[in-house]
Design goal:
- It is a single chain.
- This protein is an alpha+beta fold and 334 residues long.
- Among the domains are: 62 residues, no CATH class; 111 residues, OB fold (Dihydrolipoamide Acetyltransferase, E2P) (Beta Barrel); 59 residues, no CATH class.
- It contains 6 helices and 13 strands.
- It is rod-shaped.
- It starts with a strand and ends with a strand.
- The N terminus is likely disordered.
Length: 334
C-alpha cells in the first residue's frame, strides 16, 4: 500500500521502458480510489488499460511528473564525458612517466672523451648544492636547472653570433639533453652570481660539464676569475690555465723611433764624405709559428677571435690560442 514518502512506479509497454514515475505525497493527499485502483492492478483484479487511465489522471493533476528520456540521456552523456576526461588525464600522466623512464634507461650517447668522465659527483664547500631537471640549454656555458640559470664556473664559450656558439651549445645538449638530472655545486667564492645566474660546476650523466667543454676545445678558461673561484686548484682548472694565472692584458710590440741625424757645427768646414745615416732600429715581432701566414704573438695572454683582426688564416697545431675550434686548419672562420 501507499505510505508517506516516495512512490516509484515503472511501466513497461511492449519491450521498451517508457519512463520512471515518481510520486511524493503525504497521507490523505491521494484519493482513496486511486489507492484502491493501484491495489487492484497489483493483485490482477483490473486491466492495464484501466490502470493507465488512473496514471493519466495523476499526471494531469500534477501528482506525478515524468522525466523525459532526453533528460536521462543528457545526464548519462555528461557522466560519460567526465569519466572520459579523467581517463585522458590518467593516460597523459602515464605517457609522461613512460617517456621519463625511457630517457633514463636508453643507451646514453657520449660525445666527450673518457677522460672527461668522473668517478664522484659530490659537492664541495658550503654554498648551495642541489639536483634538478635540465629545462633549457642557453649556450655552451649556461643552462637552466629547474628553471634556474646556472653559469659554468671559470668557463667562457662564444656568445650568440660568434664563431663556435652553435658547436658549444650542441655539445652541451648532447652530453646533458633536456630532462636530464643535473647536480649543481655553487662556487663558494662567487655566491653573488653573475647577471642573475648562479656560478657553479654542473655534473650531468657522469660528466663534469665545465671540464668536458674545456677538454674538447669548445671554450677556454677565464683566467681572470681563477683567484676568485673555489675551484681554482681543481685539476681541470689548473690544466686549462689557472696554474699560469694569465691575467695580464696583451700589448702588441712597438718599433723604436728612428734616431735623429746629427748635423756638423756650422763653423766646421764640410767633410769630403757625407756621413752615413743609420737605418732606424726596429724590434722584430714575436710571431707564434702555429699561425704562419699572420703575425700573432704566443700566449700569454690567451686571445680569442674577437681580439684580433685576422680571419680565415692558416692554423698549425698545437694552436695555443685555440683559434681553430673545429680543427680544419683554418682559424677564426668568418
Amino acid at each position: 500500500m501507499l505510505r508517506k514518502g516516495h512512490i516509484l512506479a515503472i511501466l513497461v509497454i511492449g519491450v521498451s521502458v517508457v519512463s520512471i514515475l515518481s510520486i511524493s505525497a503525504e497521507e490523505g493527499l491521494i484519493p482513496a480510489w486511486i489507492k484502491n485502483s493501484a491495489k487492484f492492478w497489483v493483485d490482477g483484479q483490473t486491466s492495464d488499460q484501466e490502470f493507465l487511465t488512473t496514471i493519466e489522471w495523476l499526471i494531469e493533476n500534477d501528482f506525478m511528473k515524468i522525466a523525459s528520456q532526453d533528460d536521462e540521456w543528457k545526464a548519462e552523456a555528461g557522466k560519460l564525458y567526465k569519466e572520459n576526461q579523467q581517463l585522458k588525464k590518467e593516460i597523459s600522466d602515464l605517457k609522461e612517466k613512460d617517456t621519463r623512464l625511457q630517457r633514463l634507461t636508453q643507451p646514453y650517447y657520449d660525445p666527450a672523451p673518457k677522460s672527461s668522465r668522473i668517478q664522484s659527483q659530490d659537492c664541495s664547500g658550503t654554498a648551495s648544492c642541489f639536483t634538478g631537471d635540465v629545462t633549457a640549454i642557453i649556450d655552451g656555458d649556461t643552462i637552466k636547472v629547474d628553471g634556474n640559470s646556472i653559469r659554468f664556473a671559470l668557463v667562457d664559450t662564444p656568445e650568440i653570433g660568434e664563431y663556435g656558439y652553435g658547436l658549444a651549445k650542441d655539445f652541451v645538449a648532447k652530453i646533458c639533453p633536456l630532462g636530464s638530472i643535473a647536480l649543481v655545486d655553487e662556487d663558494d667564492k662567487q655566491t653573488q652570481g653573475s647577471y642573475g645566474r648562479m656560478i657553479a660546476i654542473i655534473y650531468c650523466n657522469g660528466m663534469n660539464l665545465n671540464k668536458a667543454v674545456l677538454d674538447q676545445g669548445y671554450g677556454k678558461i677565464d683566467t681572470y676569475f681563477c683567484t676568485k673561484s673555489e675551484f681554482e686548484y681543481d685539476g681541470w682548472a689548473q690544466t686549462h690555465g689557472c696554474a699560469a694565472k694569465k691575467t695580464q692584458q696583451y700589448t702588441p710590440p712597438k718599433s723604436e723611433p728612428p734616431k735623429a741625424k746629427t748635423e756638423p757645427p756650422k763653423t766646421e768646414p764640410p767633410k769630403t764624405e757625407p756621413p752615413k745615416s743609420e737605418p732606424p732600429e726596429t724590434t722584430t715581432p714575436n710571431c707564434d709559428p702555429s699561425y704562419p701566414t699572420v703575425c700573432i704573438p704566443p700566449p700569454p695572454p690567451d686571445l680569442d677571435c674577437g681580439e684580433i683582426t685576422y680571419r680565415n688564416f692558416k692554423v698549425l697545431q698545437p694552436d695555443p690560442h685555440r683559434f681553430d675550434g673545429d680543427k680544419d686548419g683554418i682559424g677564426c672562420e668568418s
